[in-house]
Design a protein that fits this description.
Rossmann fold, elongated, 13 helices, 2 domains, about 20% strand, about 350 residues, Nucleoside Triphosphate Pyrophosphohydrolase
């Protein structure tokens, strides 16, 4: 089990978590910042150019769940994690990876009013002024104060996702006792679908659903970063169309006729980094009328929200490969054809025609 204690700098995460380990039998303090420090020490300096935060390293977000799983194989747990996590897509990536390993996550936000936070950050800098490098203390204080704006921007999703503990007038011990009570009740546990990481390339089926303006439906998973098409991996012995119908029902509550799905795109996705590749099939699932849109239902442990978007809007939500796949699917739907792609790029005559169309 992971107890992830979130909050901006000055909220009292580290001191509260030290107290918390005394209240949760078998618990161990796990600070992912040490993973970042290790990476910064190993990676070439040019890789860090332009990065102000090691959380922006994909390798950090990959390693944090892996190290957590390794630690839980050594100690009884839980792991108490004092770590600021303000980007929702990073939360999804890390928490989803933990869930895929069967590790429950309890998410707690320590919140303090900004005036108090500023006073704490400035007070800490004054305390360290005589015992540490003045330039380093000033830089750390400046960095902490600048990130208060990022925290305020992240608050809308944080207060929705995490159980909030206001630490403005609490001692570290009081805060730890509040967190321990939340963990024991289970009210801070985040329901996230356990989607095991594939061990080989896969076949996946996506179903495109449209509104009356021909905008396409995208969904926002809670277990990985970014938006997606409705759909999922084809299970062993399952027909791809049946997989698309099953996923639409499970994810959205939409009942489709397997025979009515029309294949638009066959794409081969390469294996890149930790992500497995394979064959990606895209089907036209038809239009949803007003009643169908009103009936959409999302499983809380799997999807956060949905929206209908144009291709241009999708470009800001999907990875580049998925944008290319969507563009090809919309073209195939318009032409009444099936298009073959590799890594999102059309092949043969389809490539020439796509270039001619611009």
């Amino acid at each position: 089990m992971i107890v992830w204690v979130n909050g901006t700098f000055g909220a009292g995460k580290t001191t509260a978590c030290r107290e918390l380990t005394a209240l949760l039998p078998g618990s161990v303090l796990y600070d992912p910042e040490q993973v970042g420090v290790g990476l910064v020490g190993v990676l070439p300096p040019e890789r860090m150019e332009g990065l102000s935060d090691f959380q922006d390293l994909p390798s950090w977000r990959l390693l944090v769940p892996q190290v957590a799983a390794a630690l839980l194989a050594e100690v009884p747990g839980p792991l108490v994690v004092p770590m600021t996590l303000l980007r929702q897509e990073y939360r999804d990536e890390i928490f989803g990876a933990l869930a895929s390993r069967g590790i429950p996550v309890h998410h707690v936000l320590l919140h303090t009013e900004e005036t108090i936070l500023r006073a704490r950050i400035e007070g800490r800098a004054r305390q360290r002024a005589g015992s540490a490098d003045p330039a380093l203390v000033a830089e750390q204080s400046r960095w902490s104060l600048e990130h208060l704006a990022d925290y305020q921007a992240a608050l809308p999703w944080l207060v929705t996702d995490a159980e909030v503990v206001d630490t403005t007038v609490l001692t570290p011990r009081d805060t730890a006792e509040r967190i321990a009570a939340l963990v024991r009740r289970g009210s801070a546990r985040r329901p996230i679908v356990q989607t095991p990481e594939p061990t080989a390339d896969t076949v996946a089926a996506a179903v495109l659903l449209f509104d009356d303006q021909d905008r396409v439906l995208l969904v926002d998973p809670v277990y990985k970063a970014g938006w997606e098409f409705p759909g999922g991996v084809v299970e062993r012995g399952e027909a791809p169309t049946l997989a698309g119908v099953r996923e639409a029902a499970e994810e959205l509550g939409v009942v489709l006729d397997q025979r009515a799905l029309r294949l638009l795109v066959v794409d081969w996705e390469p294996h890149t980094g930790p992500r497995r590749g394979g064959i990606r099939l895209v089907y036209d699932g038809g239009r949803l009328d007003a009643a169908g849109r009103a009936a959409l239902r999302l499983p809380a442990e799997e999807l956060r929200s949905w929206r209908f978007v144009t291709l241009d809007e999708a470009a800001g939500l999907l990875t580049p490969g998925r944008v290319r796949r969507l563009a090809a699917a919309l073209r195939a739907r318009r032409l009444g054809e099936v298009l073959a792609l590799e890594a999102g790029q059309p092949l043969g005559e389809d490539a020439a025609e796509a270039m001619a169309e611009g």
